[in-house]
Write a structure and sequence with these properties.
Layout: H1 2-31, H2 35-49, H3 53-70, H4 72-81, H5 83-105, H6 112-139, H7 150-154, H8 161-183, H9 189-220, H10 224-229, H11 232-253, H12 257-277, E1 282-285, E2 291-293, H13 301-337
Antiparallel strand pairs: 1-2
Helix pairs in contact: 1-2, 1-3, 1-6, 1-8, 1-13, 3-4, 3-13, 5-6, 6-8, 8-9, 8-12, 11-12
Subcellular location: Cell membrane
InterPro entries: Cyt-d_oxidase_su2
Main location: membrane
């Protein structure tokens, strides 16, 4: 049953990166758009993320619950030593959701709309930034459980070049996913060209920050190159992601909406496999040379069995409801545009 629980944890993180990433990316693109085009991207992104934005954080909640119940030592380590970026990320999630609701459903459209818009776009940037920072810190061997000062215990483990490179890479990837999804949401050629340009810009940013991650890993002695190219699985997934990116651009230029979205999801899936497989089952690498493992630092067997049964049972209710939510919003959008 432990592998069922680990599978749910990994899939929850993947779906959150895909759906939540495109969701956050819509706000990132709005932040990086000129004032004259903000209203257009605001309307288009609302139509695109409306069906899923309320359900997105369900996947993050599932991942947190799995860690809390199934891997308490992992949960405790992250929540204690990375509590500062965690709080910033959670505040960003709350602020973004609140601003999104008020700017779209507020009965009175007044000057407060500008405030809601600012909160929405900046929290859309901050949240994935610190999500990436947390992920980078977990594998960078910066977390020092033997630290005896506040800065070394709670600040220097995430406030560094490598972690923020991963953070900005995450931001760029979210913007790239959003641009790809928004290309398929517009009909006129002018709008399609606009989002293609955004996709190009975000793709360049993704490649730039990927280079920064490798540079930072070399400086800090993090064996990232070995992780990604030192085993056949990671190597094949990296190659698959690169090939998918090539075909993705072909699909974008040919305006093949289903293909471009599938390829974007496939590319992110391959990247996530590549970065998690190399040090599996270790999920947190500590500064003292030890690791926290999903297999060796799990809860008692009875707890894992109960958690696995609960996840399997819950998925029978959650997944059909989610599909119906997307379907119903899609029908509503078609009726409004008809």
């Amino acid at each position: 049953m432990i592998y069922v629980v680990i599978g749910f944890l990994w899939v929850s993180l993947l779906i959150y990166v895909l759906m939540g990433g495109a969701d956050f990316g819509a706000g990132i693109l709005e932040l990086l758009t000129t004032e004259t085009n903000k209203s257009h991207i605001r309307k288009t992104s609302y139509q695109a993320i409306g069906p899923i934005w309320e359900a997105n954080h369900m996947w993050l909640i599932i991942a947190v619950v799995i860690l809390f119940v199934g891997f308490p030592q992992v949960y405790t380590t992250v929540s204690v030593y990375l509590h500062i970026p965690l709080v910033i990320m959670l505040m960003g999630i709350i602020a973004r959701g609140t601003a999104f609701s008020f700017r779209n459903y507020d009965a009175i459209k007044d000057s407060m709309q500008r405030v809601y818009n600012k909160i929405y776009v900046y929290s859309s940037f901050i949240t994935p930034l610190f999500l990436g920072v947390i992920a980078g810190s977990a594998v960078s061997r910066k977390i020092d459980t033997d630290a005896n000062t506040f800065l070394s215990a709670y600040v220097f483990d995430w406030l560094n070049w490598f972690c923020f490179s991963v953070g900005f890479f995450t931001v760029s990837l979210c913007g790239f996913l959003a641009a790809i999804f928004l290309v398929g949401e517009v009909k006129d050629d002018h709008s399609k060209r606009r989002y293609r340009r955004k996709a190009v810009q975000m793709n360049i940013a993704v490649l730039f920050w990927a280079g920064m991650i490798f540079a930072a890993s070399l400086v800090d002695g993090i064996p990232l190159l070995t992780w990604l190219f030192g085993n056949i699985i990671s190597l094949l997934t990296i190659i698959s992601a690169v090939i998918a990116l090539v075909f993705l651009w072909f699909a974008i230029l040919k305006d093949r909406v289903v293909a471009m979205r599938f390829l974007a999801g496939f590319m992110v899936t391959m990247l996530l496999i590549a970065v998690t497989y190399a040090h599996y089952p270790n999920i947190i690498l500590l500064k003292n040379g030890t690791e926290l493992s999903l297999l060796h630092h799990k809860a008692p067997e009875k707890t894992i069995d109960s958690l696995g049964i609960a996840l399997l049972t819950g998925s029978l209710f959650i997944l059909p409801a989610l599909f119906y939510l997307v379907y119903s919003f899609g029908k509503k959008s078609q009726q409004e545009t008809a």
